[in-house]
User: Which sequence fits this backbone?
């Protein structure tokens, strides 16, 4: 635990130093869509200093290297002042990218772009940077909370781009807020499993230990934040089955789909004997029951949850049912290292839905 706290503190300090000397690219954000490969892409952002040179770059797929495709200069006078008092100088550029900068996805195309100052990268952000800005009182917070994990890169997708293997169905045009695993075709479920698995690390698994599972506010509130952090990771990949990165919900009354039965293996030689605490990997043990027949009980269905007037009451009605699912599925899922099983995240999305349904009560 102590190691991870030190590591995150170091990350904060490094980001602060980086941000002090640079700035950000807000457009395009990582995962932004444009109509077609012929569309003009607008690049814009802020520097912390006036009159700075900005190099706009894109990945040339033919050459296999970054190429400067445009330049900009930060404004000579202050454009806006961040709420913490930091003065920001805007820059912008706009152009369509030639064909060599676009690569084909399952359907549609994507381009990789970034922007650089004379001796620093501008941070690239996620699509939720607007709401993230509201939660970030300082420029340093903004840099830490809102940048994409693919920073300094941002991917631009055409509207018809779909992440996933070739020949795999696109999500329907009717836009949903969130899908269930059952609604997603098997080949795309495999792709989604891959993305969820990619997010899982020792630090992420360890983060589950910070949730107080016997306190209603922590159980509901901290699991939600935990899920949302994965969604921030998922949102940049252009997978239409994950609108805004939202984790697909698993209905625990149905069998775990075959693509989702795996547990992420820890790095070689780092399988912990029972817990990721005091260990560099995590505990990886196969699920013992992938069809636990554990549906959402009727008292926890939308509408019926409204019989509970306090969060503590909702927690009392939920947590035993929640615990027994973990026990029934077994293996890693029956331990505090359960987030190492990707299905954990889809299962907890259902638990979170119960809270959402309760929040929506009159
Ligand atoms: Cu759980």
Assistant:
């Amino acid at each position: 635990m102590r190691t991870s706290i030190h590591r995150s503190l170091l990350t904060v300090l490094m980001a602060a130093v980086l941000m002090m000397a640079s700035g950000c690219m807000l457009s395009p954000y990582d995962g932004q869509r444009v109509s077609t490969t012929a569309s003009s892409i607008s690049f814009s952002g802020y520097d912390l200093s006036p009159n700075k040179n900005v190099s706009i770059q894109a990945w040339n797929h033919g050459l296999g290297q970054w190429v400067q495709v445009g330049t900009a200069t930060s404004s000579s006078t202050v454009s806006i002042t961040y709420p913490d008092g930091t003065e920001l100088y805007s820059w912008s550029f706009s152009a369509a990218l030639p064909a060599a900068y676009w690569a084909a996805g399952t359907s549609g195309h994507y381009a990789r772009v970034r922007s650089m100052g004379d001796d620093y990268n501008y941070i690239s952000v996620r699509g939720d940077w607007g709401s993230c800005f509201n939660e970030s009182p300082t420029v340093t917070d903004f840099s830490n909370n809102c940048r994409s994990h693919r920073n300094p890169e941002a991917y631009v997708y055409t509207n018809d781009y779909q992440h996933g293997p070739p020949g795999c169905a696109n999500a329907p045009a009717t836009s949903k807020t969130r899908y269930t695993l059952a609604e997603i075709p098997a080949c795309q479920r495999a792709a989604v499993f891959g993305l969820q698995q990619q997010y899982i690390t020792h630090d992420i698994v360890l983060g589950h230990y910070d949730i107080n599972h016997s306190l209603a506010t922590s159980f509901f509130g901290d699991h939600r934040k935990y899920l949302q952090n994965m969604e921030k990771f998922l949102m940049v990949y252009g997978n239409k089955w994950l609108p805004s990165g939202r984790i697909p919900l698993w209905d625990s009354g149905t069998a775990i789909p075959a693509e989702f039965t795996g547990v992420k293996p820890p790095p070689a030689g780092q399988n912990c004997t029972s817990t990721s605490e005091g260990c560099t990997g995590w505990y990886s043990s196969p699920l013992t029951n992938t069809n636990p027949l554990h549906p959402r009980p009727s008292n926890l269905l939308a509408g019926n949850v409204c019989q509970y007037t306090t969060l503590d009451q909702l927690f009392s009605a939920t947590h035993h049912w929640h615990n027994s699912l973990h026990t029934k599925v077994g293996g890693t899922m029956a331990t505090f290292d359960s987030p190492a099983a990707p299905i954990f995240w889809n299962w907890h999305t259902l638990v979170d839905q119960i809270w959402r349904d309760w929040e929506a009560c009159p």
Summary: DSSP finds eight helices and eleven strands in the chain. The first strand starts at residue 23 and ends at 30. Residues 177 and 207 are 27 Å apart (CA to CA). The two ends are 41 Å apart (CA to CA).
